[in-house]
Amino acid sequence: MKWLKRGAIVLVAVCVLAFAVLATWEPHFASAATPPATRVYKAEIIRDKFGVPHIYGKTDADAAFGVAMAHSQDDFFTLQDVIAMSRGRYGAIAGEDGAKVDYVYHLIDARGTAEREYPKLPADTRELFEAYAAGLNHYAQQHPGEVKLANLFPVSGMDVAAGFALRQPFFFGLDSVIGPLVSGDDLRREHGPDMPGFPRPPLESAPPAEAAPTAAKQAHNLVLPLGEDAEHLGSNAFAVAPEKSGGPTTLISNSHQPLRGGVAWYELVVESGEGWHFAGANFPGSPFPFLGHNETLGWTNTVNTPDMIDIYQLELDETGMRYRLDGEWRDLESRWVTLPVKVGPVVVPIRREVLRSVHGPVIRNDKGAFAVRYGGIGRLEQLDAYYRLNKAKSFAEWEGQIARLAIPSTNFIYADAAGNIAYVYNAAIPARPEGAKADWRSVLPGNRSDLIWNGAVDYAALPKITNPASGWLYNSNNAPFTAAGAGSDLAPDAFAPIMGIELKQTNRSWRAYKLLSAAAVLDRKALEAIKYDTGYEREGYVARLFDALDKLPAEGELAEARDLLASWDFNADGKGKADAIALLIIRDFMSADYGNKPFPDVAEKLAAARDHLMTHFGRLDPPMGELLRLRQGGLDLPLDGGSDTLRASTTWDVDDDGRLSLKHGDSFIQWVEWQPGKPVFSRSVQPFGSASTRPDSPHYNDQMRLFVEHKLKPVHFWRDDVLANASKTVTVTNAR
CB of 398 within 8 A of CB of 414? Predict the structure, then answer.
């Protein structure tokens, strides 16, 4: 029995040792970055009555240091997640979901892109990123108790740049390709029946290829979008010229992003002694705003979905590690990476192989090996382009930066103090050779080098409109061919189908186009009615849904639900008896339409909505405001708007009480006006507050009532204005 007792002791010791190793290996394995020697930075942070930071620095770099410090004061929790993603360590924080992001980080070589391209950026741009990293490091050093992950700090400007390289392709849908390829599912990348050309077929119709002898699904289920699902992306943007507004040039930014997390907006104003003065919003991990305005001009963005991605099926040899190209065999680049996966109190190391061909990253599944190539692959110039856009003083300067196509995608709506308005369908669309005999909408043969394009189409080839006769421009994630009204819109046949420009409309687009076209004057009152419109047009998926509902044979309780929905007035304003049941049903049909998924079963969705309402409310027709809520820190407020209305309440979490807690939709709203002979004036609002992860802050939820009541607060752009409305002023520096 002694040997048994000794064996048990040894087993316990081994288990303790294994636990200790799993609990401590990751920080040592992923040692902290060694940032370059840091200069001394100093910034002044003045917060207005809503806690919005106004950041002043002698130099642009000083201001960028202040941006990192202010954002850390408000949301260091989320910033750490973003930094962990930018270093391939998110799984050590978020477990399996984080490991999915880390796999993509390695797959698309985000770090390698940063290491190759970051040193090529202009010195002042790199200095901006180093200063921002210094701000993050300084805050982490001052607040060690808030740091989630050992050795996450210090970070360098290159680490921050790697985060940009990771996230940029997901705004045009790379996740919708990588996910199905990894899992071996069918691709649903078709742009719908209204797209020119032909949709990509499912992978089953791709030509057969020799299967690799290793596990085909080596990274099964290790893909995660770095934001919301593509079918839930949305935004509205409006620009109105003085002759149409009756006074000011007006720019309305109405981005729809998740209300929390790594791609949620953070509002700020920056100003430096080097001429950088900008009010707008950024995402965690950025030293500059991505949208907003300076003294003379401004812009905002909406997601566009051109065909930016090509897929190639590789022909492998019997080893599974070589692929044929132009009749010759080439070696696949292979490297093994370690993904940290937090499981309870320990972090488990998971090894995965990452493959690459000359086309781009390679994914193997049961159907073969597939390479992916996408617009902007391997580029990082957007870090410089956004910085220059912030400092542009004229339309010519601004357009000069857009024309670089350094920013891979997103529509831009522009306005300025001179009365100019413009729309640019910005996209680094691949310069596919038109003479090649290939179906670019299908899975391409990977054995032809002539199909491996380089670079993007010329800026001159993109859709764009400047100062239309209508006096207005808009985009609501719709085709660029409805943007300015009859007589001012572009013709689809003027653009090559090979570019893959979408032709789809959203309900928001149908509504905006109708309302803008009908308005004689687009003054502030008229624009407010359009921005906060909650109506639906019986078009597209909405028409298809209600046509099916009209034909639906139903009896008993389902018939009652059908009749209630059929009586709906197509307005999600919270006033009608059918608003709640319509809200519950429409989202899934919108999602299917946006994501090119099969049309849902109307009876099934109707029954689910009926059951939800009866279970939680005991009736089919509760007021919609009792169902749809904005919730944070003890505040629980009713909302209006639907999943695809101009007042957007897009997606939500279903809470235990059956209420829908908004998580994605109208987020940062900014309204900018340039009156002739007067300084720029702007207003804004966010759903919660400037410190949305700090429950003890007075700015945790202090904008919620404004948000639900369709109200805006002033943006204190000018220094004397912010000083007159200051609630707190601090000076931050990393000087010892």
Answer: yes
Per residue in 177-197, pLDDT tens? Answer: 888 898 888 775 444 333 333
Distance CA 691, CA 671 (A): 21
C-alpha span between 575 and 164 (Å, rounded): 43
Strands 444-445, 309-314: pairing is: parallel
DSSP output for 9-64: HHHHHHHHHHHHHHHHHHHHHTPPP-PPPPPP-EEEEEEETT--EEEEESSHHHHH
Q: Taking a C-beta distance cutoff of 8 angstroms, is the pair 51, 71 a contact?
A: no
Is residue 301 one of the residues assigned to a domain? Answer: yes
What is the per-residue DSSP string for 145-201?
GG--STT--S--HHHHHHHHHHHGGGGGTTHHHHHHHHHTPPP-----TTSSS-PPP
Q: How many CA atoms lie within 13 A of 127 on its CB side?
A: 11
**Hey, what's the torsion of the CAs at 64, 70, 76, 78, to 10 degrees?**
-70
Residue type, 61: A
What's the domain count of the chain? 1
- Provide the pairing of β-strand 266-272 with 53-57: parallel
Q: What is the pLDDT of residues 36-89, one digit of tens each?
A: 667 999 999 999 999 999 999 999 999 999 999 999 999 999 999 999 999 999
425: domain range? 232-267+288-307+380-432+457-531
Tell me the pLDDT tens digit for each residue of 507-559: 999 999 999 999 999 999 999 999 999 999 999 999 999 999 999 987 887 99
Asked if residue 198 lies in contact with residue 441, where contact means CB atoms within 8 angstroms, the answer is yes
Q: What is the CATH number of the domain that holds 483?
A: 3.60.20.10
**Collapsed DSSP state (helix, strand, coil) of residue 219:** coil
Instruction: Determine contact, residues 362/181, Cβ cutoff 8 Å.
Output: no
pTM value is 0.92
Q: Are 258 and 227 in contact (CB under 8 A)?
A: yes
Q: Are strands 713-714 and 42-48 parallel, antiparallel or unpaired?
A: unpaired
